[in-house]
């Protein structure tokens, strides 16, 4: 029997420091994505996986910060956490050591996913059946059904870390320059 689909929020405490008050008030199932033990100075900047109960969703809908993303899955919270933790560190061109990747940042998650080919997107999403962002009144939702068609459910990432290519980084830079240019043009026009 398939577990019902559950909605989780990945909330960035660095962008939404009131998360701790919300967690204390509503007591939803929640877990930090970083490994324990977590240093106190890191705890306040970490991403948290939170079951998005009605109260949590209502609370998040009132936020004006880029707090994070919603993900939907049939996986358990433990399985989802284990999957997501694989993407907290990535390799980028020009760096010998892994760097932190805030894949849960709603300001750029769609741009980043747009640089992935279908296989890489499928592997990155893993047990996630839907992704949704709510940012400054804009809602974007995708189940990626067309992109994921034909791939096995248990696909795994080759290697230990996700590696961004030079061309992916260049494409992301170009997208950010276009966005900034359009914002500056709006400001001065």
From TrEMBL:
<dbReference type="InterPro" id="IPR025391">
    <property type="entry name" value="DUF4123"/>
</dbReference>
<feature type="domain" description="DUF4123">
    <location>
        <begin position="7"/>
        <end position="121"/>
    </location>
</feature>
<dbReference type="Pfam" id="PF13503">
    <property type="entry name" value="DUF4123"/>
</dbReference>
<protein>
    <recommendedName>
        <fullName>DUF4123 domain-containing protein</fullName>
    </recommendedName>
</protein>
